[in-house]
Amino acid sequence: MTKYWPVFIIRLSGRLIVGRVIKINNNKDMNRDLCDDFCPSTKVEELRDKVMEVVGLSEIFKVLGDETRTKILYLLAQKELCVCDIAAVLEMSMPAISHHLRLLKTLRLVKYRREGKMVYYSLDDNHILNLIREAQEHFAEER
After folding, report:
1. Confidence class for position 21, pLDDT limits 50, 70, 90
2. CATH of the domain at 71
3. Can you give the residue range of the structural domain that contains 71?
């Protein structure tokens, strides 16, 4: 039996989301990505332990989700820079850059060294550089 679902409009976080009419041939098509029965395999506990290994990773990805912070990390992958250099390159204020650097430093993505009155920032280690390179390679594949 063919069913047509109507257009729907919902408000989500202040945005209007508009759905479109879809054609469904039968009820199985609606749930084809779901199991028919609930019968978890015996490996559930093992997988639950594995999931605990990634606790906290989402915080790093949240921080990297901001384009300005990603740009800062990319610049620091090129060379060690002070706040005023980063601010000049990104055409932003020094307090704004300092705010971003503080977040990056909290997650151990960047480190700093003091030389007199100047503070220079760099990537904390090569893991961050590898993460940036992997993301760039993935982005280049999609084009």
Report:
1. very low
2. 1.10.10.10
3. 57-142
